[in-house]
Amino acid sequence: MKLRVGVLQLDIALGDEKKNRENIERWMSQTYVPSDVPTAIVVPELWNTGYALERATELADTEGKRTAAFLGNLAKKYGVWFVGGSVLVSTEEGHTNRAQAINPQGELVAWYDKVHLFRLMDEDKYLLSGKKDCLFDLEGIKAGCVICYDIRFCEWLRTYALRGTEVLFVSAEWPSSRVDHWKTLLRARAIENQMYVVACNRCGTTGNTHFAGGSMVIGPKGEILFEGSEGEEAGFVTLNLKAVSEIRKFITVFNDRVPEIYDTQTK
Ligand SMILES: O=C(O)CCC(=O)C(=O)O
To answer: Where is the CN hydrolase domain (predicted)?
Structure first.
């Protein structure tokens, strides 16, 4: 089974959804989509508004419907999946940072509210954290998605791997000042969980914060298949899912875990 993945590493205009949509449309108009391999496109975290969290009431998308319709139309037009790429959403309980998975028929297949809120960006003041993971079937491939700061929590991503995830999608707004953490953590998550990691970061500057770009596609043995530069760009890689089952058979970490001991050490 093969999957072509594309990371759209884009800049984000703060609070300007129209401009950010036009940018995605422009990049998609230049995207080649093969007919023999399914394609999944990832866009950055909070791509519609950036971190304009103090304007959440004005800017948030009600239940993510506006975004699902926008990405759904693009998915149908180009025959691709959109995975991740979170937006600011309003729900009955409050605001969340939500990623969506949309299939080439334009249907919303799954969604994920960021579980680990990032205090340095005041997410805990404005947002509610998600309460569940996001695993879904992508053309027969076990896929999952998380958002940015979530990658620091190896125990969270381990639960994805234990449930069979083969390709993990990550959307982020990760600053340049910690880009070495970004690259190291993504690679570690791929190696320890023996899965593909497809990670899209934003680039550009908002206020005093510069964002690193450096989007990554990493194989299940930790091999770097794509590494973005600092500016806007689209990177494409074709993944061969056989690599996941092969490494899982060769180094049998999932059979060799001893969880009953781990539990006793934390009590
Ligand atoms: O963990 C980090 O250093 C960056 C996280 C982040 O920027 C975010 O979750 O938005």
So the answer is: 3-241
CB 94 within 8 A of CB 124: no
- Spatial distance between the Cα atoms of 77 and 115, rounded to a whole number of angstroms: 31
Question: What is the per-residue pLDDT across 75-129, written as a single tens digit (0 to 9) for each?
Answer: 999 999 999 899 999 999 999 999 999 999 999 999 999 999 999 999 999 999 9
For residue 51, the ligand 1 atom closest to its alpha carbon is: 10
Distance 192 CA to ligand 1 centre (A): 21
Q: What are phi and psi of 168, to 5 degrees?
A: -110, 125
Give me the helix-helix angle, 17-29 and 65-78, nearest 10°.
Answer: 10
Residue type, 142: K
Q: Is residue 211 in contact with ligand 1, taking CB distance under 6 Å?
A: no
Question: Is 149 close to ligand 1, i.e. is its CB under 6 Å away?
Answer: yes
DSSP-assigned letter for residue 116? S
Residue 123 in contact with ligand 1 by CB distance below 6 A: no
Q: What ipTM describes this predicted complex?
A: 0.97
Question: How many Cβ atoms sit within 10 Å of the Cβ of residue 262?
Answer: 10
Q: What is the pLDDT of residues 232-264, one digit of tens each?
A: 999 999 999 999 999 999 999 999 999 999 878
The fold of 2-257 is: Nitrilase/N-carbamoyl-D-aminoacid amidohydrolase (3.60.110)
